Every structure is written in structure tokens, then in C-alpha cells.
Amino acid sequence: MRELFAIFGDPVSHSKSPLMHNCAFKALKYDACYTRYHLSDGSRLREKFFELDLAGANITVPHKEEAFRACDELDEFALKVGSVNTIVKRDGKLYGYNTDATGFLKSIEEFKDFKKILILGAGGTSKALSVILRDNGYEVEILNRSQARLTPFIALGFKTYSFDTFSMTNFDIIINTTSAGLSDNSLPVPLNILTLLFDKAVICIDIIYGKETPFLKLAKEAKKITKDGSDMLLHQGIKAFEHFTQYRFDSQEIHDAMKKAFILS
How many whole angstroms separate alpha carbon 119 and alpha carbon 215? Predict the structure, then answer.
């Protein structure tokens, strides 16, 4: 019987995940279909998952922490960071994973000898990236609009700032994990702070893909190396696909099939 997969998010119409996964299903002759579902209320994620009779799902902003709460079982890393972006149903239970972190780490392999990182935002993606980057030897600090959202990061031992408490330090890499610029022209932090950050930074990365966000536009104008979230999307998608299909395909096969989605779109 054909399996059904989906991505939940708000917004979700921009997502390239359906094209990526459907390209891989077709190329690898796996009987499944992947669609998107706009979910405005993240607390209904578990209910909708079962209502749609899904075999698995990906979760994008802003529901990755709600996805964590929706699962019956969690892998070690997802449990550590409190954020889930991949869910698989097995025997009526929901198993949660975080493939964002490994996907992002793979996407920055090209950048050597840069160790000091500032992450903008304090959501589920920020939690995943901050932990895996620190575990791999990077110095990581967090900047977020409000102090309240920073509490879990402080508990994990990270140095954090709100907009009101930020004091300038030099960072090699600035990573935007917020949704600013996804469906509007907003910036993740005030312009005066970004100007200071860009003065010293070498690389600016936005996890948003498929468009030049105001953040990346300003970074290019400041003559910084820039990168969007396309590679992260691809590599996290490969790992999610492995979970969906219980590791029956070679990762390079999945990579080659999914890469076609970036040519077709």
C-alpha cells in the first residue's frame, strides 16, 4: 500500500521538501507520496498526523518544539535539544528525530578554520544547531529578541544575549535561524546590531532557502561570504528519507535523486 508523507509548517507553501522526496521515491521505486500541510496551530500536529494517516512527516517553522511534544519516542539528540523535524510512525507510535543538526553540519564542511559563531534566534532550529556545533568544537553564542526564550540555552551553558543586553564581540560566522525574510522583508535583528556584526564577520548564513533574504542581501553588500539553506535542506532531507524508508537505500543514491529537485524548481 502506498505510504503518505507530509511536511507541516506555517508558512509551508514555499517548501521544496515535497519535490525532493517525491523525486527520490520515484527514482528509487519506493511506493510513496509526499505532500505539504499548512498547520497554523502546532498543538494539533499529533492529531493531524493521525487524521491524515501519515507514515511520516517533516516539520518546519514554527512547530519543531511542538513536534517534540507530539512524539512518543525520541532519539538521543532530539531529546537533548527539545526539537524535532522528522517523525516516523511505527506500530501506532510516533518516533521523533532531528536531522536539521547533521544536515547543517554537513552543509558547512567547506568552511575551514572558522570557529566563533553567533546564532540569531532561539527556536527549535537554533537549539539543534547550537548543540551540534558546540559538540563539534565551535564556540557558539546566541542572540534573540527576548530574554525569556533564552532560558533553555542558558541551562545548556551557552552565552546568550537579548537585543537589550547585546555587547559586541567578534564572530567569524553569523547564522540566521529565524523566519525573518521568509515571507516578508524583515531583518532578524535591528539594523544597527547587524551593521556591527557584519563589520567583523567573514561568513553569513541564512537557513532560509530559495530567495535572497534581506539578511543575505545586506551581508553581500558588506562583501561577506554568504550561503543560504539549500545545502542544509538537502542533507537533512537525505537523513529524513533514510528514517522514512528504514535505511534501505544508499545515501548517495538518495542524494543524487533529491538533487534533481533543485534543477526542476
Answer: 13
Query: Residues 6 or more apart from 55 whose CB is under 8 A from it?
Result: 3, 4, 5, 32, 88, 89, 244
pLDDT for 265 beyond 70: no
Q: Name the active-site residue from 64, 127, 224, 227.
A: 64
pLDDT band, very low/low/confident/very high, at 1 (cuts 50, 70, 90): confident
Is this prediction's pTM over 0.85? yes
Cβ-in-10-Å burial (0-12, 13-18, 19+) of 13 comes to exposed
* Span 36-58, average pLDDT: 98
The region, left, alpha or beta by phi > 0 then psi within -120 to 50, assigned to residue 181 is left
Report d(CA 247, CA 164) in Å as an integer: 46
220 included as an active-site residue: no
Helices 251-264 & 230-244 angle (0-180, nearest 10):
130
